[in-house]
Amino acid sequence: MANHTLAQLETALRERKLDRTLTTALPAWERREDSAASATDIATLDACLRGGLPRGQLSEIVGPASSGRTTVVLQAIAASTRRGEIAALVDTFDRLDVASAAAAGIDLKRLLWVRGPSISLGTSVATSLGSASGGQDAAVNRALKAVNLVLQAGGFGCVVLDFADVPPVALRRIPFTTWLRVQRIIEGSDTACVLMAPHPLARSAGGLTLSLGGRVRWTGDANRSRHLTGADIGIRIVSPRRRFDGEVSVAVITNDSHYNEPRRAI
Amino acid sequence: MFADVYAAQGSSFETLLSVARDFSPRIERCSPDEVVLDLTGLTRLFGDAKTIADQLRRTAADRGLCVRIAIAGTRTAARLLARDRVGITIVETGDEARAVESLRLELLEIFADPQIDESPRAHTSNPEPRIPNPVTITLRRWGLRTLGDLAALPADDVATRLGQTGVAWQRLARGEDPAPLVPSVPEERFEQALDLEWPIDGLEPLSFVLARLMEPLSAHLERRDRGAAVLHIRLHLVTREVHERSLQLPAPMRDARTLRTLALLDLESHPPSAAIDRVVVAVDPTPGRVIQFSLLTRPLPSPEQLSTLMARLTALMGEGRCGSAITVDSWEPGAFEMTPFSLRDSRDVHGHGPQSLRDTENKNCLGDIAASGPRLAIRRFRFPIPARVRVDLGIPVRVTSDRRGISGGKVETYAGPWRTSGGWWVEDTKKYWERDEWDVTLSDGATYRVFRERDTDAWFIEGVVD
Prior knowledge:
The complex is a heterodimer. Chain A has helices at residues 2-14, 19-22, 28-31, 43-49, 69-82, 98-103, 123-129, 132-153, 168-172, 177-186, 256-259; strands at 37-38, 53-54, 58-62, 86-91, 111-115, 156-162, 192-197, 209-219, 227-238, 246-253, 264-265.
């Protein structure tokens, strides 16, 4: 009997019929529960964010090229898959390096990778998707549709939309209501949605914006002995409601298997 | 009362089954040439046991079967007698032990190893000599020859020497049934068809037709506690062609809406070439799923939701563009493979066995990576971007590209070159690479990985360190 009742309760919870009955009026983020945040497993960042990226909110990780955006995003996905959750990456221009993802600790079986067109194909993209700028817009629209489908399906712990390489012109053409719609879909769910972009786009009231600025680290003075050892990523946290303002610095090391593969300096 | 019908070797089992089903709905398949019928209540329809046996034999003969029939109060007695005696044998209820006492002890082996009669050699004209059952050998050493000899032994002594097996054999020797009859359920076809009065063209009207067909199909599956493993859609076209699609489902499912959506999404990608005048939907059934939900673990999408999501994403992004990546055992830069995204492994968090051990090892490995701190990632251009590189004394000093988004500039810091090569042993020249790689930080602030192809002396940007 008890099992039957439990099963009924769980079914109702899944259908979100009891959300407002069993929880307090405050949203989960306000109650500061551990489960309300999706930890990134970067200790200094999680401490500053009081647990991690907020669930049920759209957050942004922004910055220029080589600022460490992909590193932080892959860390967040890796942390999510390590917790037994499933994650999704909508890769607008097919830029994920699988070796980097594996080195970051992502359980690849738990990552749904949605690959957009390989835009660096150059002329071929124009052939497949129309003109060059039209092709980029088509890729962006497809990525937005894909992320909508993933969020509507539910059950993902972390969903990332990679707009890092989308040209500013194409980004400006995205209506602002798009982000309101995304926010509306994930509201009340356990999904932490992350948008990776060159500059802030969504400006979600409940979410966060992590503004990154990075500098790679080299060792060795002599030309022949110099090599890349890592990066220092400065993260400035911007919270519209002024909950978590602050700055942290994260030291990142290079992917050993990637940089120490059997290559020989000549 | 039970009747055992034992057909001659080489007879069609389907025919034998159809004969049996003409008489009783409760039948049990014992071996490829033997069925047992439950005759309870049939005397009102057919008459006494002798009449039933006569009619059974006549019906079988009409269909080309030569059968032995034994009717007894227990299935065990009926089976033993049918194996031993030709023609019709009828035993009154309660006389089973006496009726079988004179039979050979070896007959009990049909219960000990039901596979014996199902092996192909059982039907050959010169069967190979069979290895006797160890219990039979023991009993023969004791000097027992008939079932009556075994039945007469004290049950306690048999149990002491042979254990529960001996007790079971002794009960069989007395003609007693070890378990109640388990009726064989006839194989059902899970199929729905609709002939249309007017041909339909396009997927929208087809969706209504599919909904109408899927709902009774789903209800049928639910009644039988079955799920669909494979969904077959057959569209008969006005051109007299048949457009056929089969969807392999990742998990047994029977939700009508999900099945319809999956069928429609597949037909969107593979539309029929003409208007449709007949629609047939069939499924290959499989036992339904048993799912234990938990309050302690985070809910994952159901297989129905996931299948629909993957079908929609595939329709949107293209075939092979959605799934899970796997690393491959290769030094080829950027090598990976795609596999379908599945939750099968993800759900087995409390499992045991090798899979669970692999999961544990995997988690430990991932935990070690987490403990060692964040790793610098690279954003890889799937097709490297051609670049113009000015070289001074063999060192790149300026990198530019026509590609928008890469401003390029003067090389501020560099490391390299690292020479790699591979794939020269493969005939496919696209798999061959030989290059010098450099990591460079440009004046625009970004750090790139660039390489020079040694055979063409062309420079490319492979990715951005990010």
